[in-house]
Design a protein that fits this description.
single chain, alpha+beta, 2 domains, 3-stranded antiparallel β-sheet, about 30% helix
Length: about 140
């Protein structure tokens, strides 16, 4: 049994370097790549090394809030599972999420999260970057 999930229909390889989806020969199979937690931690640290200055300056760090991600264009969604892992590491709870591989229509909400304003602000941009770089718009 392979160490990664195998799917029989519509073979494709996802290139993490270029964030493009490339068709492959029909005898090959889809390969789901897993981004390790250490890489997710590094991305968070690059974007927010210590605190979210905006929420501290506005004195809203402990206020509870909710944020939604939606797309302006139709797209093929990717990385919702990794984003959920990132949010969990920042004490943000994902309450709704569409799975990677979902086709999303313009203006459709695909992820909803709740947490403190400080945590939501820390998660917001780094998670948005994941969607921007890896989803096929």
């Amino acid at each position: 049994m392979p160490a990664f999930p195998v799917h029989e229909s519509k073979p494709r390889i996802i290139s993490l370097r270029t964030a493009q989806i490339e068709p492959v020969a029909s005898e090959e199979r889809d390969i789901m790549l897993r981004i390790p937690d250490s890489r997710l931690d590094m991305l968070i640290a690059e974007d927010v090394p210590y605190i979210d200055l905006t929420s501290v300056a506005l004195d809203i760090t402990q206020e509870m809030g909710e944020m939604e991600y939606f797309t302006r264009e139709d797209c093929l969604l990717c990385c919702t599972e990794e984003v959920a892992r990132m949010m969990s590491r920042l004490d943000v709870t994902v309450t709704e999420s569409k799975p990677s591989g979902s086709r999303i229509a313009a203006n459709e909400t695909f992820l909803v999260a709740q947490g403190s304003a400080g945590a939501l602000h820390m998660a917001w941009k780094v998670c948005l970057n994941m969607f921007d770089h890896y989803s096929a718009v």
